[in-house]
Design goal:
The chain has 1123 residues and is of the alpha+beta class. It has 38 helices and 38 strands. It is an enzyme of class 6 (ligase).
Amino acid sequence: MQGFVVERKAGWDAHGLPVEREVEKTLGLNTLAEVESFGVERFNRLCAESVWKYQAEWENLTRRMGYWTDMKNRYATLDLEYMESEWWALQQLWKKGFLERGYKVMPYSPKTGCTYSNRDVAVGYKEVTDLTCYVRFPLVAASLPPKLTDLLCGAAEASLLAWTSTPWTLPGNVLLAVNETLMYVFVEVTEAGSAAAEGGSDRGPKHPESETSHFRPGEVLCVAEALLPDLEKKMFSAAHKPKVVARLPGSELVGAKYAPPFPAENQGEDCTQLWRVVAGSFVDSKTGTGLVHVAPMYGEDDFLLCMSLGFDLSRPECQHVVGQDGCFMGNSRVPVSLQGLDVTCERTQEEVLDLLQQRERLCLVEQLTHSYPHCWRNKNHRLLRYAMESWFVTMGDPTVRVRMQQLNREEVRFAPERVKDGRFGNWLKESRDWCVSRRRTWGCPLPLWVCHKELGGCGAECCVGSSAELRSMLIPGCEEVMLDDLHTTTVDSLQLQCSVCSSVTAMSREPYVLDCWFDSGCAPFAQHYDTKDNADHPVVDFVAEGQDQCRGWFYNLLALSTTLFDRPAFKKCLVLGLVLDKDGKKMSKSLGNGVDPWHHFNEEGADAVRWYLLGMCAPWADRRFDVPKVRSANQKFFCILFNVSKWWHTQWSALPEQEKSGGDYSRPGVLNRWVLSRLASVVQSCNESFEKDQFHVAVNTLETFVGEDLSKVFVRLSRAHFSRDPSLTFQPGAKTRCLQTMRTVLLYVSRLVAPLAPFFVDTLHRSLMESLTGFASPNHSVHLAAWPTPADVSSWLDPLVEKQMGWLLSLMEAGRALHAKGDRPGRLPLAQAWVSRKEDAESTSHDELAQLLGFALNVRKVCVLSQEQFQEKLQEVQEPVLAPNLGKLGARYKEEAKELLNALELEFGPLIVNDEKKQKKALAKKGPGSWKGSNAEKALQLLQAEGELVVETAGKTYNLHLEDFNVSWLTREGFSVSPEAGLVLDLTVNAEQVSAYLAKEVVHFVHQLRKSVDKQRLDKGQGSLGQVFLCVVVQERKNGSASEEPVLTDVDWSVVLQATMANPLKSLLVQRPDPKVLVDCEVAARDGRLQSLEVRGYGDSCVGFRVFVRCVDVVEEVDMWKW
């Protein structure tokens, strides 16, 4: 709409766990071994087919929700060209030195043999109960610092006490970590204790509590001081409280050596780095003992700590003690009784604890219920944190990290802005190496080949960047092989020749596929299928995804763009909140609180769903999906807009053709100029909101404009131009000007709404353009129209006319408020109204505004007065109420105030109090009271004319001024007044008003009848009701009998006939029914042949009526009297 070419290619993420799991469920497979037995080639083929299983459904949903994207020219991550682009990207990283081999602790499923990303693991957590233990790590006395040796002098044995929730990792222990800033204490057990504190946990029948809480006399244990009270409750009875013998900071423990719980039989010669105390920033005093056992192969923090200390993890002592099958290995570090046991089984945990107890290393065992990650494929399979050989993109390199932060800070705009330096910026500061390899079958193969020395090769490594390069490396005679697929089963069947040593047997590909997040990170350039010009493709202007993608897709995009092209991947990023259920819970299948979009598209419509979600809050805030509010959004906006457009089409189709195109329609009317001025403000506000991604503000602005300004003000007042009231005399062409203005407004509103809710406004825009041009065309779509800009509508801004309309609206509001105070029927016209003129308005504007006010308030005549004339009018319709200001008079005259009040009463009559209780108090205290009527007028005239009131009594003279009195006004009977708004209403009623009142009631009642009949006819497949025969019998409610005088005049009866589309020749009006006719009417009303209407009366001049009505289609040949 703004004239830009926007390429919106549909993209299909074809690799990753969801696809694999879908196929595995279908085949009943759960492990990698089962997949390999089934056949990787067959499995991958089924995965490729599964990607397109829901293609038609997704495309239908995409179209139905109004998601603009090109489905025909789509891209998919399984396409040959896309995968080639990924290979090209990986080769560029290889050439720049950003791709390296190494170890990384990753979530790993020994049952399936697959590694997972942390994002995959997030959906697989389960609550489980595990055995945890507190374990002794005896200190080596020779390694202790002198100060600590002196403090522990005489201690039989000193041990470090550590807690672990994974006892199976203890054979892999190499270090203990402490926090250098925490204080640690050594506590001595003075005598043997076997009873645990009341409420402590046990391990079950095999290990009773008396066996697991075991100490030796005189032993000393080291724990964090902050955790000692909690440990006392768990480990010691009241009779065996520990005694603190030493206290020192964690920094003084660093370097101390200890004996591992499971020492290797054949340890290496140089073990100075192993089994010692080191500092770890991840250690805290929240749980455990303040000491953490470190096994680098089974914990990410453990692994990173060892790497930072320069550990050689290739040493046998640091290698795995658990195999990839999840079972203890048969090496020297694992006790024989544990070898071959599955570490994910509870029995294995018990075996480990038995060994610890036998070796007197176990202090306490307790149960812990916690959330533990399970396999995404099978929720019954536990995952291990397992160090795997992997390939990394070195995002942790300081140069890369700094450059990413710089690009993010200088060239990327986020909405909300706080994400740039907050959630996303903090993640960039701590960015780590990105593991891009996965042990799976379905994915883009890692294009790295190694010439293995053990197979007679040279050890060279090669990264292939395209299918052409791959073909060039094939062994002689295979160059013409067909490469129409680059998945593992294809490329692994090829034999490459080493470019260094020319070996034809030693080259094999690294057995990994690429992380599917690498797939998505390549999307900005890989979707174009052009590896030669990847760097020439422009930076993406805009991306949008959920807030969880700050560590996912947003990061991957920036990481690859920085390392490949040294530029940002996108210019602007909109971070979206989550859509939750009505209670604020995340939607999921397990909770059964998901939403079927098709149901709501079919019930409320896609427009309503979009409008509701966009309008409820800012895009980056979480939102709760509540079905009743979706319906409310539909009613608040689209139902109103539909009714407004329907009214416009009805009036436009009724307008004579010569009036539609002829004449000068420069829109001089105040109402037209006002709505265009308001529209210009809306256009400006919406443009600003869209630029700031504050779509909820734009929605609220449009809702207010359509619901209030357009519907409640413009359309309601515009009906005056189409009214049959002879008292309304607008300028020639007013109808056409009104409808043309309204069409302009609807066109602009349609264009503003189009990006938010694209369906209904497109239909509306096409119909409006057809009425404007005289023909239908696909080019009339709202989505092909120009976007409204503030420059387009700046000439419509008119502060003066908005001020004038503000005056009119305030008078309308005041009139409705006055009407609400009384019991006058709304359709009973008022004879006259007087309003105070706005001095800055043109006289022609006053004439139009007065007529619009008269129409809005149902007033026959509106007189616009100057402010002086209006004040005079107020004095005519109000009588003053004058009361002495006792506070001021008492403060000034003190004891003489009573004499003054007596003198005033002699002059102007006694003070009157309406309330009897107040009257008694006033008589007793000589006040408060007031003068009304002529007495008040007399006193007020003297005060206003002379400026003061002179009162003499008992030889004293008092000079009183206007401020010595409280002046209020009482409205005379037959009037209603709002002095603040400048409005006076004449409430008197005459026969002409009663006739008009009755006509309006009958018209309204017949319209309701027509609606009811129309609904029945439409249900039967018939058209709407056209011209009708109308029979109306009017009975006046007065002294129990009908009036002899006609109530409904001929003029108003003609209005009824026109307004109800009644045939004037066969329609009947009976206003003097004799008693027999009334009886027949009553019977017919009870039988349903006639409809009856009660018209409420008002005062003596309008006593009320009972009206009998019959409305029949003219095509029916009926006698109106035969009921």
